[in-house]
Q: What sequence folds into this?
């Protein structure tokens, strides 16, 4: 009778509240789904967003586990700063830099999946044999979670904390040195830029706007040249390629840039 | 619910992250998988802190976060530098140290 009561007491002490269980069973699968999404999504941006989902789920799980400081830091630093840094670098490197699907080492993919599954099984089986005690953080958190953490950081872990500051400064310096690019040639002057533009042989001036001297000023209406023909240069190339150019009533067939150049030659 | 479930979740997330490091070729995605593994260890630290009733685990998780932030900064700078010279962020491309 007494042993049964002791076992029951141990079971109730080792178990968590119903609300926490609901949170776990909602957010745990969500975190695992996000992790698998990171693994399998073809685009790197989708991977980054799904990783942010996983990190937010973990932040809520920290909150549920009496770690409010770590939960907030996880949401602010990890999801807010680190993942957004990832997204910035993705935009810098090019979102469409596709992952190559060519296997460079034969059988590497299968070996990697087998290794990961084996490692996970080993981890779970070895942890499953551990003796579970659930003391809970009520006593440690009695003076407040942040105060308790500060007590530890500034007393027992103060040396590690100071070393951390050196690490952060070194990391900032390293990032600046790595991302810095030395300029090897002199910056082009305005005169050189202008000469390059006129020597290039392209249209040196801005292109004519659409709808100048025409009945409409919509973007699909070509501007009219002094001789009444349509100036194809005034229409966006995309519209011209799609055939969305509005025909000019009363004008002869629109003049292509080549034809305009030929006409210029004839005038001279 | 047994609090060991958190540790099992952490083991699953760590394994998925390890599989990602081994499987993916894009250096940035590989890096994200490393972050996933660090998060999984953090979850284990927080859970063990709660089970043992002491805050040391949370302090160590905090230090892991700081080190991860520093690592992300330097790693992304290296990726940007490699991309600038090779025009590619694939980990197969950077093989100049091989010879």
A:
């Amino acid at each position: 009778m007494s042993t049964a009561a002791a076992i029951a007491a141990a079971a109730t002490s080792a178990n968590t509240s119903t609300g926490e269980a609901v949170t776990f069973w909602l957010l745990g699968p969500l975190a695992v789904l996000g992790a698998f999404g990171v693994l399998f999504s073809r685009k790197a941006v989708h991977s980054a967003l799904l990783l942010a989902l996983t990190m937010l789920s973990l932040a809520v799980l920290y909150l549920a586990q009496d770690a409010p400081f770590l939960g907030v830091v996880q949401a602010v630093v990890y999801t807010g700063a680190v993942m957004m840094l990832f997204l910035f670098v993705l935009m810098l490197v090019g979102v469409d830099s596709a992952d190559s699907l060519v296997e460079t080492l034969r059988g590497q993919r299968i070996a990697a999946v087998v290794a990961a599954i084996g490692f996970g099984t080993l981890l779970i089986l070895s942890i499953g044999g551990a003796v579970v005690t659930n003391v809970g953080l009520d006593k440690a958190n009695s003076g407040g979670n942040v105060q308790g953490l500060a007590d530890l950081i500034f007393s027992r872990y103060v040396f590690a904390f100071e070393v951390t500051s050196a690490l952060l400064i070194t990391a900032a310096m390293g990032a600046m040195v790595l991302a810095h690019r030395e300029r090897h040639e002199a910056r082009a002057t305005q005169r050189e830029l202008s000469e390059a533009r006129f020597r290039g042989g392209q249209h040196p001036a801005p292109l004519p706007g659409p709808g100048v001297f025409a009945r409409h000023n919509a973007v699909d209406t070509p501007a009219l040249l002094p001789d009444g023909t349509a100036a194809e240069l005034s229409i966006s190339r995309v519209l011209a390629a799609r055939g969305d150019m509005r025909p000019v009533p009363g004008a002869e067939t629109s003049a292509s840039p080549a034809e305009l150049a030929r006409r210029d030659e004839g005038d001279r | 619910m047994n609090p060991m479930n958190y540790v099992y979740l952490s083991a699953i997330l760590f394994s998925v992250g390890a599989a990602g490091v081994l499987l993916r070729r894009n250096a940035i995605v590989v890096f994200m998988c490393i972050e996933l593994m660090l998060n999984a260890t953090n979850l284990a630290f927080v859970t063990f802190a709660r089970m043992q009733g002491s805050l040391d685990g949370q302090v160590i998780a905090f230090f892991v976060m700081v080190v991860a932030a520093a690592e992300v900064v330097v790693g992304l700078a290296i990726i940007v530098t490699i991309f600038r010279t090779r025009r590619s962020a694939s980990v197969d491309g950077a093989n100049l140290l091989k010879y």
Observations:
- The longest helix of chain B spans residues 56-86.
- Chain B touches chain A through 71 residues (CB under 8 Å).
- Residues 38 and 64 of chain B are 7 Å apart (CA to CA).
